[in-house]
Automatic annotation (TrEMBL):
Record-linked Pfam families: Glyoxalase
Annotated ranges, domain VOC: 11-136
Native organism: Govanella unica
Protein name: VOC family protein
Gene3D superfamilies: 3.30.720.110, 3.30.720.120
Residue ranges of coiled coil: none
Length: 154
């Protein structure tokens, strides 16, 4: 008798980003160096491109592949940039951003303390994806955040 199959694989209960880029093998190297990504699987195509790869970053899945323009699967540079940012909480955003820059990222927004209780900054990886790295410093109520907001904006 066949084993019952869960319609939703374990660990994929929520939204899982699936990134496309030119140079997925290099992106795997970048994510490993910058974010300690752990490779789960990688399917290489006969032409050398990665057809599908999965990693875990902080225990959560991220899927990616090389561009396949004939399937309308293009990376951010194929569209002139990406409106999607990837948000990642880390234990030390200063050190994590420094590692990402050492691995080839460029700083989009320098690390700074934020009015909502995080210390954060943003980088663009060598493939055009923007990552927002943050470390929670304070737990604030909505009222405390709202009280600080005018100070942060003016």
């Amino acid at each position: 008798m066949p084993q019952a199959v869960s319609p939703i694989p374990e660990g994929f209960e929520g939204v899982v980003p699936y990134l496309s880029m030119n140079g997925a093998a290099a992106a795997l190297d970048f994510m490993t160096a910058a974010f300690d990504a752990v490779l789960v699987m990688c399917h290489d195509m006969p032409d050398g491109r990665i057809g599908h790869a999965e990693v875990r970053i902080n225990g959560r899945p991220l899927m990616f592949a090389d561009e396949f323009p004939d399937m309308n699967f293009k990376g951010p540079r194929g569209y002139g940039g990406s409106p999607v940012h990837l948000h990642l909480y880390v234990t030390d955003c200063d050190a994590s951003i420094a590692r990402a820059v050492a691995a080839g990222a460029k700083i989009i927004r320098p690390v700074a303390d934020q009015f909502y209780g995080d210390r954060s900054g943003s980088i663009e990886d060598p493939f055009g994806h923007v990552w927002h790295l943050a470390t929670r410093k304070e737990i604030l109520t909505a009222e405390e955040i709202m009280a600080r907001m005018p100070k942060a904006n003016g």
